[in-house]
Amino acid sequence: MTSTQPPHAGDVIYTARLIRTANPSQPTATAIAVRDGKVLSVGTLEDCQQWGITTIDRQFEDKVLTAGFVEAHSHIMTGMYSNIPYVGWFGRHMPDGSWVDGVKSTDELVQRLASIAATTEPGQPIVVSGFDPIYLDTERLSCHHLDEATTQHPVFVFHASGHLATVNSFILQKYSIEAGHPAPGVGFDKNGQPNGELREPAAMALARDEFRLIGQVVFSLETIGHFANAMRNAGITTAADLGNNFHAKDESLEEVLNATRIDSFHVRVASVPRIIGGPPAMHEFVEKVQEARTKTHDKMHIPVVKMVLDGSIQGFTAVVNWPGYFTGEDHGLFLLPPEQVVDYLRPFHQAGIGIHCHCNGSTTSGVFIDAIEVLLREHAWLDHRHTITHAQLITQAQMRKAKNLGMSANFFVNHMWFWGEQHRDITIGPDRAAAMNPCGTADRIGLQYAFHSDSPVTPANQLHTMWAAVNRATPHGDVVGPAERIDVNRAFHAATIDGAYQLHMDHLVGSLEVGKYADMTVLEQDPYEVDAMAIRDVQVWGTILGGVPSKSTAQR
Questions:
Q1: Distance from C-alpha of 236 to C-alpha of 67, rounded to nearest angstrom
Q2: Is 522 inside a domain boundary?
Q3: pLDDT tens-place string over residues 297-315
Q4: Which of 147, 195, 297, 525 gives 20 to 30 Å between its CA and that of 234?
Q5: Chain segment 351-382, per-residue pLDDT in tens
Q6: Which domain holds residue 125?
């Protein structure tokens, strides 16, 4: 029987070799009908044609369509590599699709900085990003290394984690960062002299002009556009900018609103403001979020807020339980007073605004979970979905409690590839490394979870996060924590509908169901059919957003 509804202008049916929907009621299909940018029907071509649609687009008949990948923890900063040189260990695709080789030694970093300095006017800042000293066997990067590149420019090396920077002596002198400087996070050598390390935002902000330059680049229309390109190239159709400061800068919000309205902007953005300030200002913050929500549109949502409680494990600034770090110096640092967390979060919880909290360390996860327990005792909310983001060292006891409280976890499972060996051998030791980012245990306990790239910390690529969760392999072929591996079907759902759930957007995106946005990832191969070790090598053709295809520009 054919529907009595008349066809609409723009109605289209896409056919494919296979469609994976992330909808358990109908997990696969071969055709999908789109009307007004939404899913009208999913099934066979004959099923879809019953709506009276005659336009059939067969360009994807040899490809696999899936529910659009949802990246529930990334940053618009991803687009900054269009303007700020990348100096990370692993080579990666830039937002425009070009490839940049990694930096494999301190000497190579110094050479790159020297080449930049040769074409930069003296006194002008040199800012690069993505460096990570944990891979190097030599002494830790210091101001003295950077001085070898140039003494005529302020040099600011932003580390991959986003929690650390190293600066040269030019910057130390420019801002009078001297022996005995009182700011927390300033690094000193064995003689008590500043060594150029600035740990966490309070210390990095001492290099005022250079740190501000990163912020200026991040919230530009160009960077936001490059962010969209990077996500599209990875097959991501919904991406969270998890932790911005739009509430403090109205112009930042307007930049994102304007950029996302452009027809060629190929991703939906979940813009997530970061909680800053003190408890007395939180009610005003809530009002700002509620007001901003009235300005959003189909490609721009403000679903939750974010709190940051600690730093990074590889930077030794995450706060971890006994016995502390395996080797190296413990710089664990709470970024907010743990005894005030409940007061910070109470206004958001009471206003029905979901909370994602950055917790890399086990101590930090415990603080956040305990705070949510207090808030739920004070004010019941059965569908809060408060999420421990990163949750890398969360313990089994903490996971059970979080599950009982209705919480979620968003694991930074890419760490198993990018830093798994370093965590096992340097930061936390073999026992805790095997148990970190515990997808398998979360399934056994019943804790809802997704996983993420934290792009630009690691490249935006949900096929890679799926691969990391399925294999937990390291660059040298080791498997760290085999009991925490999951299968490809579970990984696919973590990369789609489960991320949408955590963002309170699962009624809009995350699966291909009637009434949701027609957002799809277009793949050359089926991740279910390839060898488990080849999942990350599946090629992304591009995406379909609201029924409109957009081809990747990534260079193969």
A1: 10
A2: no
A3: 999 999 999 999 999 999 8
A4: 297
A5: 999 999 999 999 999 999 999 999 999 999 99
A6: 77-215
